[in-house]
Amino acid sequence: MTPAAEPAYVAAVLVLYADLPDTPLRSSPQDQFLARRWYQQQVSLPVVESALLLASLRRAVRPAESPPLPPIRSLAYFQSVITELQRQPLPDGYLDYLRLKLRRVAAADPRSKNSVF
Question: Model's pTM, two decimal places?
Answer without folding.
Answer: 0.87
